Amino acid sequence: MYLKRTILACLLVAASPTLLADQLRLKTGYPESYVVQKGDTLWDISGKYLSEPWLWPRLWNINPQIANPHWIYPGDVLQLSWVNGEPRLGKAMQGGKQVIRLSPKNRYESKANPIPTLPISEIGPFLQTDHILANAQQGKKLPYLLGSDEKHIGMLEGDTLYVQGTLTPGQMYGVYHPGAIYKDRDTGELLGQEAVLTGIVRAVARLDGDRTEVTLTHNQREVLQGDKVMPLPEQESMPAVFMPKAAPAIQPGYIVDLPSKARGGGKFDVVLINKGSRDQLSAGDVLDIRRPGAALVTKNGTVQYKELSSGYNKVFYSSNKKAPLPSEAIARVMLFKVYDKLSYGLIMQSKDMVSTGYQVTHF
Fold first, then answer.
1. Comparing 118-132, 229-243, 265-279, 285-299, which segment has the lowest mean pLDDT?
2. Cα dist from 331 to 126, 250, 266, 358, 362, whole Å
3. Which of 64, 78, 111, 279 is the right S-S partner for 275, CB 3.0 to 4.6 Å?
C-alpha cells in the first residue's frame, strides 16, 4: 500500500525564539553512538538523547525549509559530536565515508524503507478514509446509495449498485454511514459528525437521471441503502511530510473521543479534540494533554477525594468543597488531520493513560 511506503518526515520545530536560544540538553545516560534498528522511529531515536524529542531538528541541525531531510535506515550508525558547544547527531564517518552495518541483502531492503518519524499504520486510515462531516447539510449534498436490483438490504463485495449522483467512471469512492454526532459539552454547539467507512466502490458508468452504476469492491462493514459516497483522496495527495511545531496559544479544549473506543489511550493512540482550524490550529501542531486535578470535599475537618466519597457526603458536604488539586500535564499530542472544529491527533509522549474529557492546551 502506497501510504505505508510513504515516509512521514517530521521536521520538529522549536516552540519559540526563547526556546531556540536555550542550551540543548542531553538526557543522562545518552549513547555516544547508536545503530539504527528495524522498527525504530525518528521520534524514539531522538528520545534516547533528548527529554524533549520534538527539539530533534536542533540535534540534527536540520533546516526546516528542507522538505526531504537526511533519511536514515536500519543498520546506519549514528554518532554524537559537538559543534560550537552544542551536541549534533549524524551518521558516523570513517575515512570520509558513512559507516553502514548491513549485509548486501539488508542494505537493498533497508534503502526502500527509511526510518519513519511516526508509525504510519496508526494514522494511515485517518488520512486515507476517515472523515468528519461539518453538519447535516454537508451530508445531504453528498451522493448516496440507492441499492441493487437484487434488493439486498446489506450489500456485499462484488455487487452491482446504483448511486444517486454523478461519479467519475474508473475512480474509487468511499461509502460512509453516519456515525457519532459530536457536540460541545459546555455550549451544545455541533462540532461535527463522524462518517464511518463501510465500503469502497468503483464507478463504472454514468446513467440517466443523475445516477451512476458502481461495483462494490470492498466491505469494511455492512453497506446499506442511503450510505453516503465520497471520493477517496488520491494516493499522491497524501501528506508525506508533517512539520510538528508548538501550537499557537488557544483557549483550552478537551478530548472528545478515543476512536479506538478504549477506556484510555497511551503513546501512539489517536485522540479527537474539540479544536480545529477556526482556532488557528493546523496539522503538525503539538499540544499538552492535562489530567484534571482531583476534586476534594471536607467533612468534620477531614479531606476526602470527592470521587471516593459516599453519595451522602457528596450531597450534604458539597458546600465544603476545597479547590481541586492542580491539573497535570501527562502527555503530548501532535495533530495530523484538522477540520474546522475538530482535529485528530497522535499521542507522542505519555506518562499515564489519557481519557475523554482531559484538557488539551498549548504549552
1. 229-243
2. 21, 17, 8, 10, 12
3. 279
How far is Cα 65 from Cα 238, in angstroms, rounded to an integer? 19
What's the rounded Cα separation, in Å, for the pair 233 and 335?
19
CA proximity to 174, closest of 216, 138, 224, 134: 216
Q: How far is CA 11 from the centre of its chain?
A: 16
Q: Which grid cell sits at 243?
A: 512539520
Rounded distance between C-alpha atoms, residue 178 and residue 132, angstroms: 10
Single-letter amino acid code for the residue at 323? A
Other Cβ atoms closer than 10 A to 250: 15
What phi, psi does 44 have (nearest 5°)? -65, -40
Report in angstroms the alpha-carbon separations of 333 from 6, 247, 284: 21, 10, 9
Q: 94-134: per-residue pLDDT in tens?
A: 544 445 454 444 443 444 566 655 555 667 677 767 789 98
Q: Which amino acid is at 227?
A: D
Phi/psi of residue 244, nearest 5 degrees: -60, 145
Residue 100 φ/ψ, nearest 5 degrees: -130, 125
E strand or H helix that includes residue 106: helix 104-111
